[in-house]
Amino acid sequence: MQLILGYIFSPIYYIAFGLTLAIFQPIQMIARKAGGYKGHTQSVKILNYFLINIMYIMGVQMRFEGRELLPKDRPIIVVANHQSLFDIQAYAHVFRKYDPKFVAKIELSKGIPSISYNLRHGGSALIDRNNGGQSIREIIRLGKFIEKHNYAACIYAEGTRSTSGIVQKFQSAGVKSMLKVAPSAVVVPFAIKGHSDMMKKGKFPLMFGVKLTYKAMQPIEPEGRAAESIVEECEMLIKKELGQA
């Protein structure tokens, strides 16, 4: 039944998703021109509100956990698992009070309405995975940015999406570079569960009625600890939350 309903509702969802991105592209442009950074950021928060809520078209059951654990007046480095493009809106929604930024591959900076525009103009780090020097410079720039403004930055430490949902080995280089220039930041493991189940058949059809859980876990104080140890702990906690450890 989940599959049959997926065939029925997936086209409706994708139409709503595409229209939302198309409508908010000019809205972001106008908001940025009229209101600068703050105006643009506010338009992105509204965009993500719609992106999260249109997922209910697919009959999902969403649960958000751990937001009460997040510190105030400190930058946050979020270390998350990566299952699909839906991860972006989930993270942006949960951490919306912290003007969330991303470490994203540079290919995403073009071709996707609203999302590409936000990545280019919202302060995120766009990295060329074939150019290590450029990647580190971008991550350092983002680290300085969140340190100055107490924002949040998300690193998908697996480096690429795991379509099976099985968490791959976390890499520590990005977190290490960011902590060097954001010494007051706290590291927050963020577990995303259910997106791989939703995409069990690929991009079409999406599975109907999937349970989605987004959990921010107890922040990790980085002082006196090696970045490798912190990232390893994040990987362990996320695997445990997903029933993989």
Secondary structure topology:
Layout: H1 2-53, E1 61-65, E2 76-80, H2 86-94, E3 101-105, H3 115-121, E4 125-127, H4 132-149, E5 152-156, H5 173-181, E6 186-193, H6 195-198, E7 211-216, H7 227-241
Parallel strand pairs: 1-7, 2-5, 2-6, 3-4, 3-5
Antiparallel strand pairs: 6-7
Helix pairs in contact: 1-2, 4-5
Explain what you see.
The protein has helices at 2-53, 86-94, 115-121, 132-149, 173-181, 195-198, 227-241; strands spanning 61-65, 76-80, 101-105, 125-127, 152-156, 186-193, 211-216. The protein has 245 residues and is an alpha/beta fold. It has a seven-stranded mixed beta sheet, with helices on both faces. Helix 1 packs across helix 2 and helix 4 packs across helix 5. The longest helix has 52 residues, at 2-53. The relative contact order is 0.18.
Short structural description:
This protein is α/β, with parallel strands linked by helices and 245 residues long. Helices cover 47% and strands 15% of the residues. The chain has helices at residues 2-53, 86-94, 115-121, 132-149, 173-181, 195-198, 227-241, and strands at residues 61-65, 76-80, 101-105, 125-127, 152-156, 186-193, 211-216.
CATH architecture group name? 3-Layer(aba) Sandwich
Tell me the domain tally.
1
- Label the overall shape: globular
Which structural class do the helices and strands define? alpha/beta
Order of helices and strands: HEEHEHEHEHEHEH
Largest beta-sheet characterization: 7 strands, mixed
Give the C-level CATH assignment.
Alpha Beta
Spatial order of strands in the largest sheet: 1-7-6-2-5-3-4
- Specify the helix fraction band: 40-55%
State Rg: 17 Å
Measured by DSSP, the beta-strand proportion falls in 15-25%
How much is the average pLDDT? 93
Oligomeric grouping of the chains: single chain
Gap between N and C termini, in Å?
Answer: 31 Å
Q: Could you name the ranges where pLDDT drops below 50 across 5 or more consecutive residues?
A: none
| CATH fold name | Glycerol-3-phosphate (1)-acyltransferase
Number of helices, counting only DSSP H or I runs of 4 residues or more? 7
Count of beta strands:
7
